[in-house]
Specification:
By secondary structure, the chain is of the alpha+beta class. It has one domain: Alpha-D-Glucose-1,6-Bisphosphate, Chain A, domain 4 (2-Layer Sandwich). The chain is 27% helix and 35% strand. It has helices at 15-18, 45-52, 58-61, 145-176; strands at residues 21-23, 32-41, 65-69, 80-85, 90-100, 104-111, 116-125, 132-141.
Length: 179
């Protein structure tokens, strides 16, 4: 975790103090990988949650993806939605498994380019109650056994890390720019 200055506020000009950080996480299954990213946002959970829970905001956080949903404008339990990775025109169908407003969103891939994909995005107040800790864990399994492991090492893990880091940075920027 990034240490804050004694004032209790991170220096917005310090890229180390404001950057999302990857945390340790373990997969319980062979050939399944885990990434976990954590970010402190200088806004309360009540202001951060509505940004994440709006489907229309997803392209802002993930600009290389398009989102379509037949449900409401906000994510809801059991809702399915389609995500297309635009550079490769690869499409996946995802389902929200659990929603706990202002606390947690869990979803998984029903079909798509990965063998398995599940995310668990949690939100909690920081020690400074006007801040939020955004903590997301992603589990994924690639097809093709050994070839999938090689692809993960050289391409997939780096790409997913970049996507997650950018999404969390964009969430932080959007939330902290609220009036």
């Amino acid at each position: 975790m990034v240490a804050l200055p004694l004032s209790g506020q991170a220096d917005k000009n310090d890229p180390i103090a404001t950057a999302p950080a990857f945390r340790d996480c373990d997969s319980t299954t062979a050939y399944t990988y885990c990434l976990r990213v954590q970010e402190t946002i200088a806004r309360p959970v009540t202001e951060v949650w509505p940004l994440v829970n709006r489907i229309s905001n997803m392209p802002h956080f993930f600009p290389d993806f398009s989102y379509e949903s037949t449900g409401s404008l906000r994510f809801a339990a059991d809702q399915t939605y389609t995500v297309t990775y635009l550079p490769a025109n690869a499409t996946g169908i995802y389902q929200i498994l659990e929603i706990v407003p202002e606390r947690r969103m869990v979803g998984k891939q029903l079909s798509g380019p990965l063998r398995k994909f599940k995310y668990d995005h949690q939100f909690r107040p920081a020690a400074i109650t006007t801040q939020t800790i955004s903590d997301e864990t992603v589990y994924y399994t690639l097809p093709y056994g050994l070839l999938g492991r090689i692809a993960n090492f050289f391409i997939v893990k780096r790409r997913l890390k970049k996507v997650l880091l950018n999404a969390h940075k964009r969430l932080k920027d959007m939330a902290e720019s609220l009036d």
